[in-house]
Amino acid sequence: MDKKKPKKVFVQGAIPPEKIANSVANHQSKTNIGAHSIFLGQIRADEVEGKTVTAIDYTAYEEMAEKVFHEIREVAFAKFDITCAHIYHSLGKVKVGELCLFVFTSSAHRKIAIEATNFFVEEIKAKVPVFGKEIFEDETHQWKVNK
Amino acid sequence: MKVTIKYFGLVAEAADKYEEVLELNGALIASELKAQCLNGLSIADKDSVQIAVNQNLDDTTTIKDGDEVALLPPFAGG
Q1: Correct CATH for A2-143 of 2.60.40.10, 1.10.530.10, 3.40.366.10, 3.90.1170.40
Q2: For residue B26, what pLDDT is reported?
Q3: Residue A129 is nearest to which of B10, B75, B78, comparing CB atoms?
Q4: According to a count of CB atoms within 10 Å of the terminal CB, is the N or C end of chain A lower?
């Protein structure tokens, strides 16, 4: 199984919507799957003290992040009966309305896939050393913190 | 002993650098090294900064020669 191999998670810039369609298409030959669950994180135009966020510039401690992504995968495969799981996260500048996180899990049945996707998203937000600089329209910035 | 310090996000911005090699004398635990590195930096909430030693979050580890240390502000993935 390919599930044990560390996979490349980071992509430079926004995740193109076509990647989601292609990922779905790539799983149509896997007929033991009965349910896919997808989470897509999109950059929101937050307003802070009258200024609007136009983009987030992501950086990461990449070596540690790849290790933590792998550990989260290992736990998820032990915890949930999923057939596969894919994670993609942006690095660099992602504009509002664009996608920065794509989590895709598949299982025989819906509940497991949905729970697994939720697990991945919560773990990623809590444990992966990714940092986000929220850039406003006047080129000033603030640092994003996950809630 | 020599250790590599990596700075990220708002910590890198406050320190105005991404990486440096420090020469340290004597035994030091990670929390002490963190305080030493953050001393004098303009960071509002220093408690929110975590230290990773060789990619593990543990501020009680004793620092050894050749360690890679990272100062990590709050995570913001997703």
Answers
A1: 3.90.1170.40
A2: 86
A3: B75
A4: C
pTM (predicted TM-score): 0.94
C-alpha span between A102 and A86 (Å, rounded): 8
B2-72 classified as CATH 3.10.20.30: yes
Is residue B30 within 8 Å of B59, Cβ to Cβ?
A: yes
**Looking at beta carbons, which residues of chain B come within 8 Å of A59?**
8-9
Nearest to B77 among A64, A67, A128 (CB): A128
Task: Provide the token pair at A65.
Answer: 């992040």
Residue B47, number of CB atoms within 10 A of its CB? 7
Rounded to a whole number of angstroms, the distance from the CA of B6 to the nearest CA of chain A is 9
**Of A22, A8, A23, which Cα lies nearest the Cα of A84?**
A23
| Chain B residues inside the 8 Å CB shell of A125 | 75, 77-78
d(CA A57, CA A98): 12
Asked whether the predicted pLDDT for residue A6 surpasses 90, the reply is no
Cα distance from A31 to chain B (closest Cα, Å)?
Answer: 30
Give the residue on B whose Cα is nearest the Cα of A101: B78
Q: Report the complex ipTM.
A: 0.95
